[in-house]
Amino acid sequence: QKEVEQNSGPLSVPEGAIASLNCTYSDRGSQSFFWYRQYSGKSPELIMFIYSNGDKEDGRFTAQLNKASQYVSLLIRDSQPSDSATYLCAVTFSGTYKYIFGTGTRLKVLA
Amino acid sequence: DAGVIQSPRHEVTEMGQEVTLRCKPISGHDYLFWYRQTMMRGLELLIYFNNNVPIDDSGMPEDRFSAKMPNASFSTLKIQPSEPRDSAVYFCASSPRTGTDTQYFGPGTRLTVL
I want to staple B52 with a disulfide (CB 3.0 to 4.6 A). Which of A110, B17, B33, B69 is the partner? Predict the structure, then answer.
């Protein structure tokens, strides 16, 4: 069973702090990794994708991938109350084009 | 671009009735995905198509569910007969053939089966 695991939270951080969200996956052959944000009652929207080991930065967001340890993380710098949402990790497994989603981590940024 | 379009946005029906959900993918996208999201099980892939052909339907829960894609701009997900446990939000997503494999989600259909 191919799995993607996330802590469901809620993760509470004060405004302006760094929020760190983590995701582990079971298939060593996984190739593509995605972070989606989902506000309550809305559809998932892509924040970032990452393919290679290391860090990838986009504005306040940084994705980190460690294939040897089979985890991917998302850092949100200078967290804002508007960042409060559920963050979904998605992984494509080797030999397939489909995503497997984690159950999501609920983030609360406290003003 | 209008993005992925889904209809209806909300559907309330009674157990045993047929339900049809509709999706129009982003023009030029070759992949189309149907998902179901519930609090208990999260976001689950039901089926996906490539160039209108079903590639993987292993997530379709049972024979009451069926999906079609008669052309590149339209897909349906049908539940017949519907049951209360089918109540969920159903998302359609599309993805281009090349590039980053990124999937773009529609607004979803919230289905309630009484």
Answer: B69
Q: How far apart are CA A52 and CA B49, in angstroms?
A: 27
Q: Is-contact A18 A75, C-beta < 8 A?
A: yes
Question: Are B91 and B35 within 8 A, CB to CB?
Answer: yes
Q: Tell me: the pLDDT tens digits for A11-45?
A: 999 999 999 999 999 988 888 899 999 999 999 99
Helix (H, G, I), strand (E, B) or coil at A81: helix
Interchain CB contacts (distance < 8 Å): A and B: 44
Q: Nearest CA to CA, how far is A94 from chain B (Å)?
A: 13
Pairing of the two strands A61-66 and A71-76: antiparallel
Q: Distances in Å between the alpha carbon of A37 and those of A41, A106, B37, B100? A: 12, 10, 14, 17
User: CB-CB: which of B31, B102, B108 is closest to A43?
Assistant: B108
Task: Report the relative pairing of strands B109-113 and B10-13 from DSSP bridges.
Answer: parallel
